[in-house]
Write a structure and sequence with these properties.
By secondary structure, the protein is an alpha+beta fold. About 40% of the residues lie in helices and about 20% in strands.
Length: about 800
């Protein structure tokens, strides 16, 4: 056993206190930890990540299937399967979702007990009680024990790993050659950041390998290989390159400029011993829960000061013992420091934000450092003459605990009714209420499908819950999508939690009497509405779109068809424009991912604006279903008056860096390339006044020329004649006509001409809108040999592919040459 420093009455307890009193204090600490982690647990945080992990565990349990990975990690390397295996512990006892929450909470209570046991064994009873109490009541520790994420399950196994490594170094029993490998295999497969503790274990094995029988050590290696090899080789090694997503800052960032190192991870390591945890997850507590100012903030600084002192004295002790080559005595300090700082060092050079939960691989050693800090300060104050100084330290420590308990009380009061303003997603109790009501509605109403229609996080959560329990459950974001089942389908149900999005308005405006139930979330203003609609009535929902649509029917290979579309014909620079697309899925679900790209182009395919968006999930497509997509685009402020088009493409992503556009054909099967143009659309000409010469020339009842301007009265040979024509469409025009302007002599012979699309191609006739004037400018150059006299200018329109003139006529007016 390594030498432990004597910290007086807070080290080995006074002989008169006895073991019973110590156990009483430990029992009270564990009871407090249990209450804080289980109280109001039905209002535990339930977000999409929690739902994803629960679904992975539930499916694996139901299918009796082993896993080689858990939930996808934000840092690019998948988490291990033990985060799902631990949740399975609840499933033989209850099918309710709260079961896994209880498992996570109890694992964290056991972590408090393990923190006390390890600290007592290697640092003394007084430090053990302080560390366990601070760990039990810390706000961050509490909120991180009320979720289903893998990082919330690490503290117990972190303590057990360090404890078993210390036992290996100091005792060298046979079991000490096996247990570290067991805890390491579990820990590294609970949360991916815990892989850094392979280094912690390596240091421990290096210090203690000579003390354990080789057969038992090799048995531990075999156990680790059995438990961890599928994960390490199947999920970690193939994805190691993705770690650059968090360890390589982008050029130009502060991290890159300061030798590519910043202190965010170090700040986060100290943040999680403060008082801000409840506020971070329930900020609706306002001033009552505000731990970033006033007394709570002051005590957060006090807690971090104690942790810093503990780290300093521990590091000093490691250096001193190492100089005397007392490595076994230094091991508990060294391994505890490594546990805290290895995750910090891993994230010290990073590109993505560092959050406190990334550093939970070091829990609860931060509280051990705080206990050491208290003990060292107490030891030094005790040597002074005044007995009030150590009493003041104890009082400050008690005040820190009381403040954290008061913050917990406020937290429990606000989360049931005001979760909507927090980082809670949809509290567990409300999520289960929605699930129960939906299941009852389906059974009573004999519904064929359920559509969860909404873009919010709460809608994603409800969909994930329903998907596991029900068949034919679909989800789409009403902000940009609405799905209509194919004709002949039975009754369906739409579950909606919002009213203002385009998709939600389809239901509220067309089927207000089809609402069969509603469920209000207390205190939040959020209400889930249940609509039962017969599929035969759904075309009514499409009428507002179809009535103002332009006929289409473009096939994007055999994947999807664009049936109709609706666009705003006038574009106003600096505003937004909405495009509605109505698609039909010709086939059933696929596993491929499709995206829509849309770009604003002119007649020469110059791109002015564009964006990409995911298509409605192809894994949910059903043959014959209609899919409405709304796309809102921002228009550049510097758009000039002319015709534009929306260029629509659908592409499939084949990898993170590769994609393939789908080829398009029209209704008759003619190929159109890899995209289709919707339009034309106009930025209208402005400032159109009255023509100098008013006329009325009708061209086939479709177009009228109602005036023209000449830039002068008379011209000379070699001059340029500038003519401005005033056109007005009487109806919509299906063809792009060419305007011709011919200069004829007295015998009708053509002297010069100018043919072209209106206004140099900026305003094709298909873009003309009935009743709106279009200015069309043409220039003719008079030959130098042109004799003086009166000439005739004739104007008309013709279709270039056939030469056919619109209306079969022309308009003529005189021109004088001197």
């Amino acid at each position: 056993m390594p030498e432990r420093p004597d910290y007086g009455p807070i080290g080995p307890l006074r002989e008169g206190w006895g073991l019973r009193f110590e156990l009483l204090l430990v029992g009270l600490t564990l009871a407090l930890a249990t209450y804080l982690r289980l109280a109001y647990l039905d209002f535990g945080q339930f977000r999409p990540d929690d739902a994803n992990l629960w679904e992975i565990a539930r499916n694996a349990f139901d299918q009796h299937r082993l896993l080689d990975r858990g939930m996808v990690s934000s840092i690019g390397v998948p988490n291990g399967p033990f985060q799902a295996y631990l949740l399975m512990l609840a499933m033989p006892f209850t099918s309710r979702l709260i079961g896994p929450y209880i498992v996570v909470a109890l694992l964290n209570v056991l972590a408090v007990a393990a923190c006390w046991g390890f600290t007592r064994a290697y640092f003394g009873r007084g430090i053990a009680l302080i560390a366990a109490l601070l760990f039990a009541v810390n706000p961050w520790a509490v909120v991180f024990s009320r979720r289903l994420l893998g990082n919330d399950m690490m503290p117990l196994f972190t303590v057990l790993l360090v404890w078993s490594l210390c036992d290996l170094i100091t005792k060298g029993r046979r079991r000490d050659g096996v247990l570290p490998f067991l805890w390491l295999a579990i820990l590294t497969q609970v949360y991916v950041v815990a892989l850094v503790h392979l280094v912690t274990a390596a240091v421990g094995f290096a210090l203690g390998l000579s003390r354990v029988p080789k057969r038992w050590f090799l048995g531990g290696v075999a156990l680790f290989a059995l438990l961890a090899t599928p994960y390490l080789f199947g999920a970690v090694l193939p994805n190691l390159g993705n770690l650059r997503n968090v360890t390589e800052p982008s050029p130009g960032t502060l991290a890159y400029l300061s030798s590519r190192v910043d202190l965010d991870s170090l700040r986060a390591a100290f943040l999680i011993v403060g008082n801000e945890g409840y506020q971070a997850y329930a900020n609706q507590g306002g001033q009552v829960l505000d731990a970033t100012r006033g007394v709570p903030d002051a005590f957060s600084l006090f807690a971090r000061f104690l942790m810093a002192l503990g780290i300093f004295f521990s590091l000093t002790r490691v250096i001193g013992l190492s100089k005397r080559r007392e490595f076994r005595a230094a091991a508990p300090y060294l391994l505890s420091l490594l546990t805290i700082f290895l995750p910090v060092m891993f994230l010290v050079d990073h590109a993505s934000p560092v959050y406190p939960n990334y550093l939970l691989a070091g829990y609860p050693m931060q509280f051990l450092m705080m206990g050491i800090g208290v003990a060292e300060v107490y030891k030094r104050l005790r040597s002074l003459l005044s007995p009030l100084l150590p009493l003041g330290l104890v009082t400050a420590l008690a005040a820190l605990v009381v403040i954290q308990l008061l913050l917990a009380r406020v937290f429990f009061q606000v989360i049931p009714e005001y979760w909507v303003k927090s980082d809670y997603g949809l509290p567990l109790a409300y999520a289960e209420n929605v699930l129960t009501l939906t299941q009852r509605m389906i059974k009573e109403r004999q519904l064929e499908r359920v559509y969860v229609a909404g873009a919010g996080e709460r809608d994603v959560i409800v969909y994930q819950l329903l998907r596991h329990n029900l068949k034919n459950v679909f989800h789409f974001s009403t902000a940009d999508t609405f799905v209509v089942p194919r004709e002949g389908s039975g009754p369906v149900m739409y579950l909606v939690s919002e009213r203002e999005s385009p998709g939600a308005k389809v239901l509220w405006s067309n089927f207000p009497r089809s609402e069969i139930a509603s469920l209000e979330m207390p205190g939040s203003g959020v209400e889930f509405s249940f609509f039962r609609i017969d599929a035969k009535d759904m075309p009514k929902a499409l009428q507002p779109l179809v009535q103002k649509s332009t006929a289409a029917d473009f096939a994007f290979e055999k994947v999807v068809r664009l049936n109709t579309f609706s666009v705003e014909r006038d574009l106003q620079p600096g505003t937004t424009s909405t495009i509605a697309l109505l698609w039909t899925a010709p086939g059933d679900a696929t596993s491929k991912r499709y995206n829509i790209s849309i770009h604003l182009i002119d007649s020469e395919y110059v791109v002015y604006e564009g964006r990409d968006m995911p298509f409605y999930f192809s894994s949910q497509w059903c043959q014959g279903d209609h899919i409405v997509t709304w796309i809102t685009m921002s228009l550049p402020l510097d758009l000039t008056p002319r015709a534009y088009w929306w260029l629509i493409k659908v592409y499939r992503t084949t990898s993170l860096t590769d994609f393939r556009n789908l080829l398009v054909t029209d209704a008759t099967g003619n190929p159109l390339g890899d995209g289709v143009r919707l339009g034309p659309l106009l930025v209208p000409q402005k400032g159109i006044g009255e023509p100098e010469f008013r006329v009325k020339a009708d061209f086939g009842g479709k177009v009228v020329l109602w005036g023209y301007d000449l830039d002068r009265d008379t011209y000379h040979p070699g001059d340029e004649v500038n003519i401005q024509l005033y056109w007005r469409a009487l109806t919509g025009i299906e063809r792009d006509y060419t305007v011709f302007v011919h200069l004829l002599d007295g015998q009708g012979k053509m002297i010069t001409q100018h043919d072209g699309y209106p206004d140099q191609g900026r305003f094709p006739t298909t873009a003309w809108q009935p009743g709106r004037t279009v200015l069309d400018r043409h220039s003719l150059t008079l030959p130098h040999s042109t004799p003086p006299g009166t000439y005739t200018i004739e104007v008309g329109l013709y279709y270039l592919p056939t030469g056919e003139r619109l209306g079969g006529g022309v308009f003529k007016f005189p021109l004088t040459v001197e």
